[in-house]
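Service request form, structural biology core

Requester: graduate student, group of Dr. S.
Request type: structure prediction, single chain
Budget code: on file
Notes: please return the result as structure tokens.

Sequence provided:
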Amino acid sequence: MSRPRPLPQDPIAEAHRQWSAHGWGEVADGMAAVTSLVRAQQIVMARVDEALKPSGLTFSRYELLQLLSFSRTGAVPMAKASERLQVHPTSVTNTVDRLEAAGLVLRVPHPSDRRAILIEITEAGRALVAAATEALNSNVFALPGLAPDRLQTLLELLAEFRRAAGDFDAGEDPAHWAPARDRVRSPD
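Core staff response, request fulfilled:
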């Protein structure tokens, strides 16, 4: 993946300086944090888009296929997919429309709830998401841009931020991110 030529100075640091110079110093750190998160998201999504380009998938389509591939039966109700992916049901419907047109998923009746529709991954969907995962793992996830200890800190900070924003509620137990190398796999 090609990297853009770096700017000679950090524009967010300059914006922070300008915010302070214009009398908004008390919120300059917050502005810089929000702007940095938005810029980091742009950088990460450019890398994700480049890795997914050969598959023809967008990240939202990839996420839905991966969710289905992780499910025990290869199928989940539309409402559950919306909840798990944290997107509006209309977005899931649009994503399913595109994946179904490509032959990667099917809509099937729920076996015990006549009101619900299941989204089921096809064999073509399984093959495509497996190839896309290989590309993401090697080109994006294996090289997140931070040393392992710094990545651990980032994960903890982002979980704290998300929890405070109401993104999830783990009760009294905050999210703990054990490095993958320290996790023990339980036998199936």
